Amino acid sequence: MLTHTTLVLGLLATPVPVDPIPVENVLTHLRAFQATADTHGGSRVAGRPGHDASARYVAARLREAGYTVELQPFTFDFYREVAPAALSGRHRFRGVSTMHFSGSGDVTGRPRRAGLGCAEQDYRRFVRGRIAVVRRGSCSFEVKAQQAVKAGATALIVVDQKGPFKGNANRPQPIPVLAVGKEVGARVAGLRRVRVVTRTESETRRTYNVIAQTPGARPDGKVVMVGAHLDSRFEGPGINDNGTGAAAILELALRMAGARPATAVRFAWWSAEEEGLYGSKHYVAKLTPQERQSIEVYLNVDMIGSRNHTYGVYKGASERFFARYFSRLHLPYHTADLNGASDYAPFSDADVQVGGLFTGGKEAKTKAEAILYGGTAGKPKDPCYHKACDTMANVDHEVLAVSTGAIAEVVARYVSCAPCRVN
Ligand SMILES: [Zn+2]
């Protein structure tokens, strides 16, 4: 099924070894990612040992193949609510929510109003060790939290005059921060003692991108970039999302290690994609304008072994290369809209051409797609998206094989034409 790539080889001044990539090699990397999750608390979440171990695995394979590997460190703010907030006086109040980036804690104390809580003045008569109760408005929740901490509050309750709400304190806070409606706010302020319990993980974490580049220098200095995020959600090992993409581009990099393509190929394994594309954003932000312009195209590979798959090709410059590949294999594909949900977004925001492949996430397969691709209409394309069951069993080997071949061929086409004319 994947013997197509011989067609490409003839076009290359220096052959790039993109003859069929055995899916077994890709699966070997995937099993390594599964093992790192299994031995590190069940996930490969950024800033935690499961991701670090995955990154060490990728870097070690690359180094063995002769690459110089760059580890690009950065920090990002991690937040998750481990359990719902509890606010109680004589009994527990309803309509209480933990503010995003609230600290974790279990504190009991006397509530004390502090106006809007935006300025030091609001805390003039505040007694350290009490629980601050402030009104929503006038300044950000982050400023309110900062002022409360400065005044020595052990927790902060923000009251909206309308009703219960959700808020975001913007960065990790050292104390519990709750959001409540008017009714709860009024009752709490009248009590002598309340107890606030939040259970969160809210902290700045450190992680890194893994980057490696083939030799090859084009007179115009352009490179082709291929990237995949290596981190998973905290809920699971992230084998389809995105062990598949990370493993496929690792195997491609290993096979290109001996090659001297006319155009250099730069591979990137991003971290903290799941928390908000932090790794790719950091990378793009660090580029000089000249470095940015030197990227001919950025190809993103995120989820390429979905069990109830479709072949979604990102709109843009690389579309026609993917189209040729799928057409030749008599396989259906469709154009996928760029919705900003993966690591191509910082590149396209910086005016770099982007492309890539995606075989489907939590969205349900339509009837029309089921007719075209097979599979089950009305069911998610990846039934284990962001779940603990995103394991080795959550990967369709044939879809992974076809997708890996697609990426390999598109990269080969890019490096064989210098400069590439698109459309
Ligand atoms: Zn992903």
What does the secondary structure layout of this molecule look like, with pairings?
Elements: H1 6-9, H2 23-38, H3 49-64, E1 69-88, E2 96-98, E3 105-109, E4 111-113, E5 131-135, H4 141-150, E6 155-160, E7 177-181, H5 182-189, E8 194-213, E9 223-229, H6 239-256, E10 264-270, H7 278-286, H8 289-293, E11 295-301, E12 312-314, H9 319-328, E13 334-336, H10 344-349, E14 354-358, H11 367-373, H12 397-416
Parallel strand pairs: 4-5, 5-6, 6-7, 9-10, 9-11, 11-14, 12-13
Antiparallel strand pairs: 1-8, 2-7, 3-8, 8-10, 12-14
Bound molecules: zinc ion (ZN).
Protein described:
With 423 residues, this protein is of the alpha/beta class. The protein has 2 domains: 268 residues, Zn peptidases (Aminopeptidase); 124 residues, 3-Layer(bba) Sandwich (Glucose Oxidase, domain 1). Helices cover 30% and strands 23% of the residues. It contains 12 helices and 14 strands. The strands form 2 sheets. Strands 1, 3, 8, 9, 10, 11, 12, 13 and 14 form a 9-stranded mixed β-sheet that branches. Helix 4 links the parallel strand 5 and strand 6. It starts with 5 loop residues before the first helix and ends in a 7-residue tail after the last helix. The N terminus and C terminus are likely disordered. The protein binds zinc ion. The site of zinc ion has 7 residues, from helix 6.
